[in-house]
């Protein structure tokens, strides 16, 4: 294991080890019997083999769970969990957003042909010539024009407007300004200085309500490439959320809100802005319950799931619960932009209750036969959950895609730790900063596969030339029971680790692929929990034992001992029993 030390102030981290061996109308809109075929999934989804529950759970397990075929949520592809109530975005504009709604160095200016096509599509939509899926949504208009404005106001020359974009805008803006709503005109030209066509709409725009007035004021700063204070961001978020898409007159313009969210991400949020997003709705449902457990790890997986590789966290939580390391998972059923496999989909498929309140989750954490729980953002943070549909239409991830991973829906009487996945370099330190702000004893960020938490046993590619490799970890741990927000720096150590599974006796293997198949992810995980050795088993062991060690958990000082403890939890059948207990008891908890 390659370790780079960053002590606070100057501590040595032990790195020499032995090289041994988680009800309501928001559930999936499709509910079928257990047998299904790809014809139910729509024409855009590749044909998949049909599954039955017996291809995932054997008869004994089905009996143990007390399931009938109607208890199992299908279909088995993650893309099919998208709610049918969400209108789909216009694909032409969405493709352009993928290029321009991003950072100062990642943005790719549009070519002339694409720019003309996009603006022609927006014009025809604004004139009412496009319907349904072809219509360009308010959220798309807000995000696209915010990106164009920020690029011209604040981005370096290489990612400002291309000559083709300028020619297209010169052609279409005199037509667009006649048909676009005033909020979009404001976003596109807030000071009346960008488009070359004099207009007083942008400079004089104030919004249509008190909430919009605050949002418009903040947005002017964002569109200029500027940043906001902690109280200003929190004030905006609390004013405008939850989003009421059915009655915009009672809330705010989706165009303005989309512009605000994507604009903050494009400007690269400051620490104080991220703190505001992270903490804004902590008291939305009152103070969090406190579980009577000695140790609790909060798992912050990316909410938009995995689309390619095995997602291990649900099974890792079952393993770690066997030896007293309680785990709280959280997320959603489906989230853009990836729309991949999530813990909620897997638990739904297996018949578990995924509508638990934080208080109900507390009881499951304390249950000696369970020891882990899942809480949906839908139940714990309804204001943030109300943005799910809008997030699909802004294309790129907004600030809360980072901060929703650092949440404490339940607290503990004992030690607490937070672990979060990341993909883009530069977000590891902000995530750790948020964890320290939460006051937990230990924090860990992992660059797992797909930016999720799963470390791999695959050999590192020799072709990686920049950025952190997969299996890179960074974190901190307190050396006493005092929480991170109370220490003076002397009692905490920080570390950076590149985990090479081969160093601990794991054979290098290719990563198990699931390719959006919820049932396959479950089948792989359950087979491993039954003791079937192979790549999936190894990944669960690696991720359980290594997290125990890096977080400084009791009994995990030696990595080989921590890994053997995880193996014993699986081989003894305890981990599988814990998962089955969770599915049964979650349906009975009141």
UniProtKB/TrEMBL annotation:
Gene3D superfamilies membership: Nucleoside phosphorylase/phosphoribosyltransferase catalytic domain
Protein's UniProt keywords contain Electron transport: no
Keywords recorded for this protein, A-Z: Glycosyltransferase, Transferase
Record has rRNA processing as a keyword: no
Record SUPFAM superfamilies: Nucleoside phosphorylase/phosphoribosyltransferase catalytic domain (SSF52418), Nucleoside phosphorylase/phosphoribosyltransferase N-terminal domain (SSF47648)
GO MF annotations in UniProt: glycosyltransferase activity
PANTHER family: ANTHRANILATE PHOSPHORIBOSYLTRANSFERASE, GMP SYNTHASE-RELATED
Protein name (Swiss-Prot/TrEMBL): Anthranilate phosphoribosyltransferase
Species name: Juglans regia (English walnut)
């Amino acid at each position: 294991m390659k370790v780079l030390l960053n002590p606070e102030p100057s501590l040595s981290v032990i790195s020499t080890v032995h090289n041994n061996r988680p009800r309501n109308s928001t559930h999936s809109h499709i509910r079928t019997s257990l047998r299904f075929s790809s014809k139910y999934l729509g024409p855009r989804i590749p044909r998949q083999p049909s599954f039955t529950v017996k291809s995932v759970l054997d008869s004994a397990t089905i009996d143990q769970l007390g399931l009938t075929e109607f208890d199992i949520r299908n279909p088995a592809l993650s893309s099919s969990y998208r709610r049918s109530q969400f209108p789909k975005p216009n694909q032409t504009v969405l493709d352009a957003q993928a290029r321009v709604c991003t950072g100062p160095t990642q943005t790719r200016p549009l070519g002339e042909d694409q720019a003309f096509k996009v603006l022609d599509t927006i014009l025809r939509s604004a004139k009412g010539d496009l319907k349904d899926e072809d219509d360009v949504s308010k959220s798309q208009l807000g995000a696209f024009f915010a990106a164009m404005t920020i690029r011209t106001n604040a981005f370096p020359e290489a990612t400002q407007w291309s000559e083709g974009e300028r020619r297209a805008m010169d052609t279409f803006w005199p037509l667009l300004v006649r048909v676009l709503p005033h909020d979009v005109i404001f976003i596109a030209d807030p000071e009346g200085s960008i488009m070359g066509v004099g207009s007083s709409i942008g400079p004089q725009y104030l919004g249509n309500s008190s909430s919009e007035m605050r949002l418009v004021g903040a947005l002017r700063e964002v569109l200029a490439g500027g940043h906001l204070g902690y109280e200003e961001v929190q004030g905006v978020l609390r004013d405008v959320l939850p989003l009421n898409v059915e009655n915009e007159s009672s809330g705010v313009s989706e165009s303005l809100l989309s512009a605000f969210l994507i604009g903050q991400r494009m400007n690269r949020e400051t620490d104080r802005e991220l703190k505001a997003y992270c903490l804004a709705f902590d008291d939305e449902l009152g103070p969090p319950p406190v579980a009577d457990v000695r140790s609790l790890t909060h798992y912050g997986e990316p909410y938009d799931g995995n689309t390619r590789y095995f997602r291990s966290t649900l099974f890792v939580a079952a393993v770690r619960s066997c030896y007293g390391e309680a785990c709280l998972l959280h997320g959603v059923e489906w989230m853009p932009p990836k729309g991949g496999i999530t813990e909620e989909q897997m638990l739904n498929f297996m018949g578990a209750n995924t509508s638990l309140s934080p208080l109900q989750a507390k009881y499951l954490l304390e249950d000696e036969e369970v020891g882990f729980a899942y809480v949906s953002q839908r139940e714990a943070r309804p204001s943030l959950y109300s943005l799910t549909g809008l997030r699909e239409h802004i294309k790129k991830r907004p600030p809360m895609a980072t901060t929703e991973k650092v949440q404490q829906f339940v607290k503990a009487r004992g030690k607490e730790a937070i672990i979060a996945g990341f993909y883009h370099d530069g977000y590891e330190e902000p995530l750790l900063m948020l964890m320290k702000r939460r006051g937990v004893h230990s924090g860990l960020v992992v660059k797992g596969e797909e930016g999720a938490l799963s470390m791999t046993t695959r050999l590192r590619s020799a072709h990686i030339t920049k950025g952190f490799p997969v299996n890179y970890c960074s974190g901190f741990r307190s050396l006493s029971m005092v929480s991170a927000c109370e220490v003076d720096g002397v009692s905490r150590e920080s570390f950076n680790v590149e985990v090479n599974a081969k160093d601990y006796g794991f054979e290098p293997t290719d990563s198990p692929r699931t390719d959006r198949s919820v049932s396959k992810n479950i089948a792989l995980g359950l087979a491993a929990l039954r003791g079937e050795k192979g790549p999936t088993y190894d990944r669960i062991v690696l991720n359980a034992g290594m997290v125990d060690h890096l977080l400084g958990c009791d009994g995990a000082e030696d990595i080989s001992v921590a890994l053997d403890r995880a193996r014993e939890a699986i081989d003894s059948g305890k981990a599988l029993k814990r998962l089955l207990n969770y599915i049964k008891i979650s349906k009975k908890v009141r």
